[in-house]
Design goal:
By secondary structure, the protein is an alpha+beta fold. It is built from 11 helices and 31 strands. Belongs to the WD repeat KATNB1 family.
Amino acid sequence: MALTNTTITSWKLQEIVAHSSNVSSLVLGKASGRLLATGGEDCRVNIWAVSKPNCIMSLTGHTSPVECIQFNSSEERVVAGSQSGSLRLWDLEAAKILRTLMGHKASVCSLDFHPMGEYLASGSVDSNIKLWDVRRKGCVFRYKGHTQPVHCLAFSPDGKWLASASDDSTIKLWDLIAGKMITEFTSHTSAVNVVQFHPNEYLLASGSADRTVKLWDLEKFNMIGSSEGETGAVSILFNPDGSCLYSGSENTLRVYGWEPDRCFDVVHVGWGKVSDLAISNNQMIAVSYSQNNVSWYVVDLSRVKKSGSVIQGLIQDKPIPAPTSALGTTLRRNYERPTTSCTGQDPEGERRSPSSEDEKEDKESSAEITNPEDYKEIFQPHSVISRTPPKRTEPFPAPLEHSFSESVLEKPGPAVKIVTPVIDRAGQLKGPITSSTPVQRVEPTVIAAAPRIILSARNEPIGLNAGDFLSHARNAKAGVMGDEEALAQIRKGHDTMCVMLTSRYKNLDTVRSVWASGDVKTSLDSAVSMNDLSIVVDVLNILNLKPSLWKLDLCTSILPQIEDLLQSKYESYVQTGCISLKLILKRFWPLISDTLAAPPSVGVDITREERHQKCKACYKQLKNLSNVVKNRAEQVGRHGSTFKELQLLMAPLDC
């Protein structure tokens, strides 16, 4: 069978250490899809360019953790709400604080900018929603009605309505001009964490902790569709042309249509719990965070189905389709784009003039430019006339993955469809050829390519072919490669590798700082939570040298990782996994078997019960690993004998 290079559907772009303490919030700029703001427990707001390892700007002034952030539509301003209830607004072009807004009595947990005017809305744990006039530095209206924290706010594209989603399982729609609630949607059965308006039509989408995505008609104020089967809390995003709705949940991206309800595609991505989505150059940019790390992921939307055949079994409700015109489009109204800005009423005299206390707050806030080159490129003031046109953003290049050629597999009978292989937990750059591990697309038939093993010791580089630099004939000028072209070929992937190594160094430094406290279990859990097998391997290589450090607690954390290591394409990963598994079997199998075989104790023995639960979890993982070891033991080669030895050690599991 011939091998060809095929582009994968989704990949991990980069992972960064975003703050000195845990990340508490983040948001992508929806206009460009290339700007990210992160808020941390260190009370800072950091601004990043997607795919670049260094922070552009660090914004200070908050004195408590930053709980939510939002860009305005032009991405020239950013507002952040804190745990203490204050809001701070920065001008990113001018690199300065614009406003400090006080008024909430509890943590601010949602924000949105009005699309046309100098207004923004904030929602709080105190269940109140406030509308702020940024120019007059005051609250112009307060909306009451929710009974629990308001976790998402969204202005309609025409700027006339405000939608709010709350932990009380409701969505409320507010008329900004009349200053009152228009309607309330109550079909969700758990906290609603996100709402978004359709870019053109009178439609609203919502996502909830009840693992559903629902669509609401804003003319008739009724639900027109509901999905089931989400894998957790969701992030949602309409396609820019409004043709479909994307839903990102635990490790999964779904593509929905409506009227009638249908799911066009499901893509499995290793992003964990996705926090925000944006679209740029027909690519979906997604971000997730864990502890003080933030990860970017890319999904190639050109390889995702947005119409056509439907994946069955994912939609439960079957509403009656709305009437359509002869062109097939719905007759629902579209938003009008007014030139006037938002208006409102004064809420009981809350509007106030700037005080000396406010001015002091502003002076204590700052915007520190940490990367002048990227700052100048991204936030060049519009008043400055550039001699060269601005750079156009290019799509992020997709890594290549080897797979069997479809033409070679064509046989009489039903057509065979090829899919990219299943995602590996590493999800990280391991060499110049690939920048991530692939994800699996949902297709009727799957034929997986045999993985190419990358040896731990090799005499030639990966991704470079010496023959590319040599001419095939002495007089064949066309075959001669110039110096510049040769250097470019050698440097190919260098920048990507540098980014990967920098991220790996920062992650290892985080693990080392935890290790220094003497807590080996917590440091190992920290390495596992980074979803990067290279970090796990580095930690295991140390633990394997010191068997005395191993405890039963470590086994429960590391056995699931060993399963991935044994099936890795990297020989060094397989070797490390085998050593760790052998160590666990020799040191802990007698304890595990004796504990599980012992009769129940009389009375309450919490320590014994905890040990029994850990041994039970280890036994279950070892049983899963025995199947992997059995399959690998049948292979011919130097690893075959290693797996046969492991198979003998695991024989008691079958007794």
